[in-house]
Amino acid sequence: MNDINLNLATGVSNASGLLPEDRDLVKELVDVWRKKRRRNLLREDYYLCHVRVKDLGISMPDSLAKKIDPRVDWPRKAVHALADRSVLDGFTASDEVVQAELMEICAANGLNELYRKNLIGALKHCCGFWTVTSGDDARPVISAYPATAASAVWDDSSKTIRAGLVMVESKARGGERVPMAIDVYTADAIISLRFRGGAWRAEYLEHSMGRPLMEHMPYGPTLERPFGTSRITRSVMSITDDAIRQRARMEVAAESSTLPQIWLLGTYKRVTDGGNKFDASMGAVNEITKDADGDRPTVWQSAQLQMAPLTEYLRQLACQMSAVTNVPVSFFGVSNDNPSSSDAIAASLEPLVIDARNMNRDNGSALRNVAYMALAVLHGTDFATERDAGYNVTANFLPAAYPSVVSQSDALLKQVQSIPKIANSDVSLEMLGYTADQIKRINSDSRRAQGRAVVEQLIAGGTEDSNAAVQEGA
């Protein structure tokens, strides 16, 4: 660890302009970031397949262990398999004006795309962070930060974060990133800390939100771990290490089984042509003559190495990874000899779908708070005012199960028959997987068609009245 990062907490907490009552809080936040950073970077290495084989020194020579460099991307697959089933589709609100404002905020910040990036970071490290600030035009600016560049401290009494920190700017020094600009979010201010001229300086930007302008988005939070847990658990990393070693063994075995192992017993010198050990196996016709005493060597060939036991062990590791992550084993490159039925595929995906639905519920709560803060910035109010205004803001996600259109339509038809009022609600369109923009266009086109029909009826009615008047006059 770089000396600057080791002494970062002391340097930042002693920044000029930083109020004495905030020094302990800033030091605590920097310490949390620094202590968690090593494990977060380790998980990042597993996600990026930067982890090399950890040889046990039993079945592989050191020379081969250095040359063979197998990689396994199962941790990345465990992250993306779940992230692909959580697709944000904007917000809905009971107030049409507020919903239009939220759609504009989402479009201006690219929130749907930004959500996926933040979600991947949350699944890798345990949580991601959102911040809401005011832009130059007083419009809300929503930003996302991974746990490698942010930290927060929890408040058990309010069940929210008490304060948070993000690394806004860093530079590469000594083989790692060293923070140069830090923002600390408290309930009444943003503390801007900048490293300039060899020292840290603090500047306060006060706000009236009534809470930190920061929200955490955890994966799998519990009472003991409110910031969640990583998808790349210790079990996932251990199984990945085993799989990388097995890949290395399979490489060695594949090279060894390319040529048969032939041994000549009873020779007094090398009899292969030119001392080339491949000649005896590659030649079309091979001959071994008698020696001066009339004796000839005995030829013995060892059994060819079988790859089946090696591939079977790799299959077992894939099954263990599937059990740990709830990801179907086929996602890890292991397939069955017989094709699975649609029911079997759906059953194998059910645990992953349940995880995605639970995650969407938790993430929806975090995104709702982000939306209320964005509305507060836009309206010039505070978080509590927007939360208690009765907008009923909800974050929408596409169906996690990704069923076919036919099965979706059949399920919706049965529900409409049981509850007819669903047919007149936008919920039915959401259940079919239509996006918020598509639903808006459908409603607009429907209103336009209804207006055109009313006009045509009025014109038709006026023509009939005129014809009737003419007939009466005649």
Describe the structure.
The chain is an alpha+beta fold and 474 residues long. Among the domains are: 231 residues, no CATH class; 47 residues, no CATH class. 48% of the residues lie in helices and 18% in strands. The chain is built from 15 helices and twelve strands. The chain has a five-stranded antiparallel β-sheet with strand order 4-5-6-7-8. Strands 3-2-9 form a three-stranded antiparallel β-sheet. Helix 8 packs antiparallel against helix 10. The longest helix is centred in the last third of the chain and has 38 residues. The termini are far apart. 29% of the residues are buried. The mean pLDDT is 83.
Mean pLDDT, rounded to whole units? Answer: 83
The tally of strands reads: 12
Q: What would the principal axes of the Cα set say about the shape?
A: flat
SSE pattern: HHHHHEHHEEEEEEEEHEHEHHHEHHH
Q: Class by helix and strand content?
A: alpha+beta
* Biggest sheet layout: 5 strands, antiparallel
Point out poorly predicted stretches.
none
Tell me roughly what share of residues is in helical segments.
Answer: 40-55%
**Strand order in the largest sheet:** 4-5-6-7-8
Tell me the Rg in angstroms.
33 Å
- Beta-strand residue percentage: 15-25%
- Cα separation of the termini: 104 Å
Count the helices. How many?
A: 15
What is this entry, summarized?
Helices cover 48% and strands 18% of the residues. With 474 residues, it is an alpha+beta fold.
Topology, please?
Elements: H1 3-6, H2 8-13, H3 20-47, H4 62-67, H5 74-83, E1 88-92, H6 96-109, H7 111-125, E2 127-134, E3 140-146, E4 150-155, E5 160-173, E6 176-185, E7 189-196, E8 199-206, E9 214-218, H8 234-256, E10 262-265, H9 279-282, E11 298-301, H10 308-325, H11 342-379, H12 383-387, E12 394-397, H13 405-418, H14 426-431, H15 436-473
Antiparallel strand pairs: 1-12, 2-3, 2-9, 4-5, 5-6, 6-7, 7-8, 10-11
Helix pairs in contact: 8-10
